[in-house]
């Protein structure tokens, strides 16, 4: 290689290193701006809402007086709707991901299903609300109930659970599968005893991301008839008399935290704005609790697995 070519190569390498450094600096600055903006919004929300956080705020129904209004029906409704979403979306999503990754033949039909599942993750949430209104509320006669809301949000987050399950299973080395087959296990035994435990941390991450999206959704729930004001609670799932379990709460009307916040924000009185900020703090806290549970479960799974 001549001296001119060597000098040109060095100059090209230096230019590329400079471009990499510029790109890294721009990316870092972008992340810092986003984090600082988010922290500023959260701090402002906490400063406005913290003075309203007391026991009465948690145990009171919404009302006309901002000093006496609370979020009892909203946080109970949010908890019940998320319970239905969890029960409906997670088993179905994980099972679908396992089938598509481990059992489905690699042909044009599987490729078509994979593309459609990926695209469904980006569909606007209002579309799921319209779908649920026609299917669950009208065709299946479930009405404007907690069950309808939970199934609607389950449809919304199902693609996220499926995609993350597939990616988590795909990240497991094939050597683990081959070692399991070498010991004489069946395909299901290999999945249940080996690939699924190793991929559980990634699956839990996807589940929490999906639930974190669902807990803040408003548009699909308004579409299916969520109430902006509700002053009663559904029948509790657990009773003191036989059979001790009641499912009537699934058919009860409901409201959720984001809708209650929207109702307060739309009021002209500034006191209701502080109530909405306090509800936002509680909603963020619920999301952090879910993330904390997921981190703990991932830690437990990783401790119990030895590579």
Explain what this protein looks like in three dimensions.
It is a multi-pass membrane protein. The chain crosses the membrane at residues 21-47, 74-100, 112-136, 142-163, 218-234, 277-297. GO terms for molecular function: phosphate transmembrane transporter activity. One of its GO terms (cellular component) is plasma membrane. The protein has 307 residues and is mainly alpha-helical. The protein contains 11 helices and no strands. It has 2 domains: 3-51; 55-303, MetI-like fold (Orthogonal Bundle), CATH 1.10.3720.
Q: Number of folding domains? A: 2
The computed structural class is mainly alpha
Q: Provide the succession of SSEs.
A: HHHHHHHHHHH
Count of helical regions:
11
* Distance linking N and C termini: 47 Å
What global shape is seen?
globular
The CATH level-2 architecture of the largest domain is identified as Orthogonal Bundle
Poorly predicted segments? none
CATH class category name of the largest domain: Mainly Alpha
Please indicate the percent range of residues in DSSP E strands (runs of 2 or more). Answer: under 5%
Q: Could you please say which CATH topology of the largest domain applies here?
A: MetI-like fold
What is the overall pLDDT average? 84
Helix coverage percent: over 70%
Q: How many β strands by DSSP?
A: 0
Gyration radius, rounded: 25 Å
Biggest sheet overview? none
Keywords:
transport, MetI-like fold, 307 residues, 2 domains, membrane, mainly alpha, 11 helices
